[in-house]
């Protein structure tokens, strides 16, 4: 049986595969029931559209509890962004603030400077992060099948699908493309445009053309 390499899995995940809202909630609920660390990691990754390396390298110093903000140091030429630590009342699985607080309490006095650490106290590798996400996708799939819903496709069981899920969710809600760009840390709007529907792309292109004519 052919097994994809890590780079092949990433390339495949980069094809804008994403989770539906119900699939995302099922994955996060499964993680929340089993591990405060895993739940916080996956939720932070989704909320800020982070790559596996970026969330694995997130440091305690990147969390500013006084201003309630998180600094995301992005890779691959993307923008460094400072964003709010999100609170979500009424839906615990989506409350980043509570998830992080719970994990940091459970984490205790671990001397590591990284937010997410292994059971041995070391930082997590990107392959570990990918395996964690795939694990919860499988558990969520079983839950969905047991209640009569469709399972989560294996094609989205790579953590980069969380970044695409965030971008797709924002676009479907009609969020301004420039704001999506900032949330995902894209250096160029051309990266953001992948998430937009045809009508949105045309509207955005028209707006850009008008702006250039005014200038």
Provide the fold topology.
Layout: H1 6-13, H2 21-34, H3 36-47, H4 52-56, E1 63-64, E2 69-72, E3 81-84, H5 96-107, H6 126-146, H7 160-172, H8 177-184, H9 189-192, H10 198-214
Antiparallel strand pairs: 1-2, 2-3
Helix pairs in contact: 2-3, 2-6, 3-5, 3-7, 7-8
Provide a short characterization of the protein structure.
By secondary structure, this protein is mainly alpha-helical.
Write out key terms for the chains shown.
disordered C terminus, 5% strand, 215 residues, 3 strands, 53% helix, three-stranded antiparallel beta sheet, hpI Integrase, Chain A
What does this structure look like?
- The protein has one domain (16-214): Orthogonal Bundle (hpI Integrase, Chain A).
- With 215 residues, it is mainly α.
- The protein has a three-stranded antiparallel β-sheet, with no helix packed on it.
- A hairpin with an 8-residue loop joins strand 2 (69-72) and strand 3.
- It contains ten helices and three strands; from the N terminus they run ααααβββαααααα.
- Helix 2 (21-34) crosses helix 6 (126-146) and helix 3 (36-47) packs across helix 7.
- It starts with 5 loop residues before the first helix and ends with a helix.
